Fold this protein.
Amino acid sequence: MAEIDIKSTLRHDVSVSPTARRTLRSLSGAGREQPPIDGELLELARRIMKARSRIGDFVPHNLLKDWAWDILFELFVNGEEGGIVYVKHLMLSCNTTPTSAMRIIDRLDDANLLRREVDELDHRRVIVSLTPHGRKFILALLETIGERDEEESGHRGSLAPRPYRPRG
């Protein structure tokens, strides 16, 4: 597979739209600011997001919800994959009112877990991402969950299948 020279493409190709330029820049910079993570941790974060989205299947909707977790995991997974997340996307992902979502985003910003930046191409939109402190927090949490899972299963690797043990 031929490697694409993104810098050259961004500089010289006038047919590339500003949105495509930003997307290429975002994807090419994914993971450069921070060391890459173990793929198992990213998969664990995705599994946690999926499980959190299904809580309403087991208990009344909104009884056990803390949307801050949904926001943090959404930002973590998207950040590791080089995605761009807007405030509106976070509001939709945590399935609450816009006012409640903004209150949570404000609290997470005050705690230095996320940062907001105005979109250079559309000043009406705000891009949200984890701060280095927020990323370290989520990584530490995932590593702790992975270690506990490893201890309980007796297998190396946090996502190793567990052997079947009949009850009783």
Summary: Helices lie at 6-12, 18-29, 39-53, 67-80, 87-93, 98-110, 132-153. The first helix runs from residue 6 to 12.
